[in-house]
Design a protein that fits this description.
The complex is a heterodimer of chains A (220) and B (240).
Chain A lengths: L12 H56 L2 H11 L9 H26 L3 H9 L4 H31 L11 H12 L2 H31 L1
Chain B lengths: L1 E10 L2 E11 L4 E6 L5 H8 L7 E6 L2 E2 L7 H5 L2 E4 L11 H11 L5 H14 L15 H13 L5 E5 L7 H16 L3 E5 L3 H7 L2 E6 L2 E6 L1 H6 L4 H10 L1
Parallel strand pairs in B: 3-8, 3-9, 6-7, 7-8
Antiparallel strand pairs in B: 1-2, 1-4, 4-5, 9-10
Classes of the chains: A mainly alpha (220), B alpha/beta (240).
Chain lengths: 220, 240
């Protein structure tokens, strides 16, 4: 009797572990990209805020490009053209670079908005107490402006986390890519995409709840 | 002593101060009155270099405020300032609001800064509000907090920029009382104000500003009792 060859096999417990590992990779690439992107974004935002027209003519259009071109195009272009200028980055680091710049371009405008939210009068009060420009920025502008735009920043961060799914096109095995691999094997797209969606939700929801509780604490 | 000589200030092409000469000796309480837009507040901003000047000079205890070589952050510690908007730092408690600059500017330890802050808040009658955030304070309390915050730097001069103008009428009194207290303690004060009773009762001298010049400066008795300039007479008739 001929042995039957099975191309497809059902979902197993080990597959869940596979998805958890992939979710962890989503967390890693997102956390790294958001951290770097936020630091860069605040610096860019400060340049936009302080530099006025000189910055608006140089940094502004640069950030506009990253904000306007679809992320998937940026990723593919960067991953394929970086080696031409001698940058041989693996999919993970290519993803981090592009996601971080993309995140920075979004955070820059959020950060600028935050700095603009601190009144001139407030800053004069700080300076009148003898604070230097940098002390004013560190102890007055960043905490007050930061609180004002914190909800927008959380929105950007959650957006970047979800957009990290696009790094799968470079072959980095994060949540979405892992799901695709399992779908190919099990032929159960509905179930697996539902599970993957639940993972994304499980990652986002605690963050937005935590952010909401911080906002509530600040408001009191 | 604060000495102002030939001070001119422009915003673009608009000249708001047209040659101010003014000397304020230690211990004096000077009130500045005049219509809105006459340059009163701008003068205060020029004294602690929150605004640049285009001509003339301002010196505080012999130091040229607007000289490039002046350490303005050190000089500003001598010049406490209270604004029309209270500008309390909303993310800090009353105690932290006051303790912040002694700690980061003067390099006091946290404990020292807290002691200073507690003493100053007590001084302005907010001893029971140390751990309250500004949004739980009334406007009058926030303005007293601002006074305590300025005093915590142990200034030798206090500049008040319409400190009561943004307050509800029933809250004006407590802030004026605090200012009176400071005056009685011998603080040198320059107060831009619309409170004529304060100017009359507390000041040693009153300066009347009109369109960027000091049109008349004298003791309160003379200013309110026997105003010479026509503009001042009109102004007083309007505010009474």
């Amino acid at each position: 009797m001929e042995p039957t060859i099975s191309f497809f096999s059902g979902l197993q417990i080990s597959d869940i572990w596979y998805l958890i590992e992939a979710a962890w990779r989503t967390v890693m690439i997102s956390a790294l990209a958001i951290s770097i992107g936020t630091v860069l974004g605040v610096i860019f935002g400060w340049i936009l805020y302080e530099g006025r027209w000189a910055a608006a003519l140089t940094l502004g259009p640069f950030l506009d490009v990253f904000r306007s071109v679809p992320l998937i195009i940026q990723l593919v272009l960067f991953y394929n053209f970086a080696p031409i200028i001698g940058l041989n980055l693996d999919p993970f680091f290519s993803g981090v670079v592009i996601l971080a710049i993309y995140c920075a371009s979004l955070v820059a405008n959020v950060a600028r908005g935050g700095m603009e939210a601190v009144s001139k009068s407030m800053r004069r009060a700080a300076r009148s107490l003898g604070m230097s420009y940098w002390q004013d920025l560190r102890y007055v502008v960043l905490p007050i402006g930061g609180r004002a735009v914190f909800p927008s920043w959380v929105g950007v961060a959650l957006g970047v986390m979800k957009d990290s799914a696009l790094v799968s096109v470079l072959g980095y095995i994060e949540l979405l890519k892992a799901s695709q691999i399992l779908i190919t094997r099990t032929q159960e797209p509905l179930l697996i995409l539902t599970i993957a969606g639940a993972f994304y939700f499980a990652l986002s929801y605690p963050i937005s709840r935590y952010a909401a509780s911080i906002e509530k604490r600040w408001a009191s | 002593m604060i000495e102002i000589r030939g001070l001119e200030k422009y915003f673009g092409t608009l000249q708001v101060l047209k040659g101010i000469d003014l000397t304020v000796p230690k211990g004096e309480v000077l009130s500045i009155v005049g219509a809105s837009g006459s340059g009163k507040s701008t003068l205060l901003y020029c004294i602690n270099a929150l605004e640049e000047i285009q001509a003339g000079s301002v010196s505080v205890d012999g130091t040229d405020v607007h000289a490039k070589s002046t350490d303005i952050n050190a000089l500003r510690q001598k010049l406490g300032m209270v604004f029309q908007q209270w500008n309390s730092f909303p993310h800090l408690t009353a105690l932290e609001n006051v303790a912040l600059s002694p700690r980061i500017v003067k390099g006091k330890t946290k404990a020292e800064a807290r002691d200073i802050a507690a003493t100053r808040l007590e001084h302005v009658g907010l001893g029971d509000k140390l751990n309250v955030y500004p949004n739980a304070l009334s406007g009058g309390q926030q303005q007293r907090l601002a006074i305590a915050r300025a005093l915590a730097m142990e200034p030798e001069y206090m500049l008040f920029d319409e400190a009561t103008s943004a307050l509800d009428p029933e809250l004006v009194g407590e802030v004026l009382d605090t200012m009176r207290l400071l005056a009685e303690e011998g603080m040198t004060m320059i107060c831009v104000t619309h409170e004529m009773s304060f100017a009359r009762d507390v000041s040693d001298r009153v300066a009347f500003f009109h369109q960027g010049v000091i049109e008349e400066i004298n003791t309160p008795d003379k200013i309110f009792g026997a105003p010479k300039s026509e503009h001042l007479q009109k102004f007083l008739a309007n505010v009474r």
